[in-house]
Amino acid sequence: MAVIVHHLLHPPHCSSPLPAFSSSSRPLKSQISCSSSSSVQMDPHNNEGRTKFKAFPYVSAPHRNLMVDLVSTVENRLDSQLLPCTLPPDVQYYQNQSGTGSATLHIRSGHKPSQIDFILGSWIHCELPTGGALNITSLSAYLNPSTDAPNFLFELIQSSPTSLILILDLPPRKDLVLSPDYLRTFYEDTQLDKHRQTLEKIPEVRPYVSSSLYIRSLVSPTAITVRIETEASGQGRMEEVIKGHIDPIAKEVLEIWLDECACGEREVGETERGYLEKRDGLVKSRTIEIDLGSSLPRLFGPEVAERVLGSVREFFTA
Amino acid sequence: MAVIVHHLLHPPHCSSPLPAFSSSSRPLKSQISCSSSSSVQMDPHNNEGRTKFKAFPYVSAPHRNLMVDLVSTVENRLDSQLLPCTLPPDVQYYQNQSGTGSATLHIRSGHKPSQIDFILGSWIHCELPTGGALNITSLSAYLNPSTDAPNFLFELIQSSPTSLILILDLPPRKDLVLSPDYLRTFYEDTQLDKHRQTLEKIPEVRPYVSSSLYIRSLVSPTAITVRIETEASGQGRMEEVIKGHIDPIAKEVLEIWLDECACGEREVGETERGYLEKRDGLVKSRTIEIDLGSSLPRLFGPEVAERVLGSVREFFTA
């Protein structure tokens, strides 16, 4: 869900849209995967899209390494539960007409009886009319109504070498005010807030408030939504912040999500399931509407936008 | 709801609890009151408590004037819908044993068919062991399940002449993710966020994040939760900020609440009403538990705390 991106970039040339995920190369089974049901063979035709996605070009080495590590971690752990990416090649990788923008998109659905709805990753690169470039990389994961556990959301939006927005959260799937046990289980007992507090202490870190009230409502009370400005800190500082702070925190939050959410077992009754189906459906359709629907046409032109949106809608409105 | 206060003050001597509201002197009918049903005569025995409450001692003139104006505005508009304050005199005004802390509490319930559940105001003064004093003033309002419109919350927590926390919000009474129309009606169309943005631009203003995840979940996406630090800005700057910025914003937000929430008409079906009863009940009982239950005994000793809490519980668990 790069849903937030649309609101970041007021010069409207390069707001953005899509996160993505790789159906990448087979992982080393160095980590035990959770409740694997069957192993799905990768479609070899996806290799080109997958390779392009996993390249994470245009960003710094620490940024690229972090994305590759996160994608690999998810694949190591959940691969046996995920179907291959079935997006058409021209949706897995697409460009705008002028050649100033390119992007990848990878979506892998979970297959029954996995709790994964789908996992989605992307990178987007777009030259800015003011010089420089916008680079967005993201990884997000949606669970299905067989569990009520939170989703996963990670996004880095870099509009210059010294300016970065970080979104990292486990967005809740229930009204937290009505669900104190849920708040305790996923947000208090996991001590998620300590990561937000750690980042807050870095001098270059400022709060980032999305202009969308809907997005503000969607995220959890421990959401990390910050802007990092390193212009005054000298060359290389952004890389230091990514490597020394964002990298370990993102990995730790992903581990929490994998352990407690993707692989945790939750009891969901019939009424609850109906509620989750309704809420999840609203979240996904609203995500498309706010994010992709408005930003993709501006970035990539109406034709490419319609092609990509058409493919994405299959997952977001299923 | 001074619910947030408990989490503000890590030196645990003077965290705090109660907001309050005056059953004050009869207002000039300079403003048209909404759907008044009958005019309730004030109980003359409340005069002393009311007078003490409306004095707002210990705070600066701009701070006091703002509180008095807010209380008067609510009374002018809603008075005919409110029952007199029926709290015992030793709950309307109470002190700790050492005489270093004193507080007022005023609660007025709405009478049928008003949409008001109750309105609650308070001030608290507590000398700090480190020198100086903690002063908290607050005004909050809870609606009943005949409407689903947001509540009102305003609180100023001053722990030194140069340090102030401001909480100003219309806390929603529904899950905003599931209720896009509600989000639009009360938060987008009212342009509530512009006030948050205005305050954010003042150099002395910093974000304030409650340590309670529950409180973070409770407030709206346009909530103003900020800390104002004026130590570096010279004498009198805090008064300038209160008079020039907080005063007009608090009044404008209160007007929105009065027009759109307290006096607005909403259709609430039977199922919806049951939902609101459950959610409101949880919010109120949790508020008591997090806020008053833990801070009052430390501030005022177990005996006074039990007396005050006993009276407050009647409203918060009704």
- Largest interface pair: A-B, 23 and 23 residues
Distance from first to last alpha carbon of chain A: 16 Å
Number of strands of chain A: 8
Nearest-angstrom radius of gyration of chain A? 18 Å
**How is the largest sheet of chain A built, in terms of strand order?**
1-2-3-4-5-6-8-7
Largest sheet of chain A: 8 strands, antiparallel
Number of helices of chain A: 8
What structural class do the secondary elements of chain A suggest? alpha+beta
What integer is the average pLDDT of chain A?
A: 86
Describe the SSE topology.
The structure is a homodimer of 318-residue chains.
Chain A: H1 47-55, H2 61-78, H3 89-92, E1 93-95, E2 101-109, E3 116-127, E4 133-143, E5 152-160, E6 163-169, H4 180-188, H5 193-200, E7 205-207, H6 213-218, E8 224-229, H7 237-262, H8 270-316
Antiparallel strand pairs in A: 1-2, 2-3, 3-4, 4-5, 5-6, 6-8, 7-8
InterPro entries (chains A, B): RCC_reductase
Protein name (chains A, B): red chlorophyll catabolite reductase
GO biological process, one term (chains A, B): chlorophyll catabolic process
